[in-house]
C-alpha cells in the first residue's frame, strides 16, 4: 500500500472485551487525499483532542506501549473517554502490515472529542514517510531558550492548562519554532519564567554534567518523553548515572553536552545555545542514533 496510509477507527470503550478478533471491523481504510472528517469536528474547530507520533523503522513500530500509555494519560487529563489500548495496538499492527517495510516512517494516532454535540470521539491513524533527518542528526541544532510564560508550579496551580497532555493544540509550539527561526536558530528550549528548563516544542531535553545525564523532572508541565525514557534505560544499562531533577538555565549553559530527543528526529546534539557554542559529543550522539534506530519495544 502506498503512503500516506490512513485508518479511521471507531473507538471502543477502554474496558470492551479484548479478544481482538473483531477489532478489524472497527478500522476503515480511507483515501488520504479525500475528505474524511466532518467540518464540525472539534479537533479542527478547537484543537480539542490528543495525539501521539511514533516511528516505524524497517517495519518495526517503536515503543508502542509507552506511546499508548501516554495517549491514555493525555486522554485522562483532557477528560476524554479513555482509549482501548488493545484496539489501538491492533490498529498500529494492521497499519504496519500495509506500509513499506523499509526505511523510516511516522505513525500519528489522533483521538479527538468528536463532532460538536456528537455522541463519541473521533479517532484515526495516519502513516506517512518520515522527514529525512539524517543530516541534522550529524550536524546538530542551534537553539535559543524561550520563556514559556509560566513558573515551575503552574501545572499544579492551573491543571486546566493541560500542560502535561499531548493535545492537538500545537499552535504555541509552532509559533516558538518560528521565533527561533526568526532569530537565526533551528530550535528552541522552553524555560519557566523563574528560569528552569522545560522541553523543546517537539522534544525532550537531556544534558550531561560531570558525567551524569539529567532531564527535567517529569512534572505536570511537560511531556514525559518516550525517547528520553528509552535513552535513560540504555544509559543505565551501560553503567551511566541518570537523574530527573530541576535544571536551571545556568546549568544548561554550563553542560558538557545537550541533546534534544524525540520519536522521529531521534537524538540531535545542541551545538549552540543562545549564541554560545556548546561542546558536542559526536561519537555518543551516533551511538544514541544507532540505538534509537534499533527495534525497541
Ligand atoms: N515534548 C513535546 C512537547 C513533544 O511534542 C514531544 C514529541 O513530539 C516530546 C517532548 C518528546 O516525546 P517523544 O520522545 O515521546 O517523542
Automatic annotation (TrEMBL):
InterPro entries xrefs: Aminotrans_IV, Aminotransferase-like, BCAT-like_C, BCAT-like_N, Class-IV_PLP-Dep_Aminotrnsfr
Please give one Gene Ontology molecular function term for this protein. lyase activity
Quote the cellular component terms of the Gene Ontology held in the record.
Answer: cytosol
Q: Has the keyword Lyase been applied to this entry?
A: yes
A Gene Ontology BP annotation from the UniProt entry: carboxylic acid biosynthetic process
A Pfam family cross-referenced in the UniProt record is: Aminotran_4
Membrane-spanning intervals of the chain: none
Q: Sorted alphabetically, which keywords does the UniProt record give? A: Lyase
What family does this chain come from, according to its entry? Answer: Belongs to the class-IV pyridoxal-phosphate-dependent aminotransferase family.
Q: Which NCBIfam families match?
A: PRK07849.1-1 (NF005886)
Name recorded for this polypeptide? 4-amino-4-deoxychorismate lyase
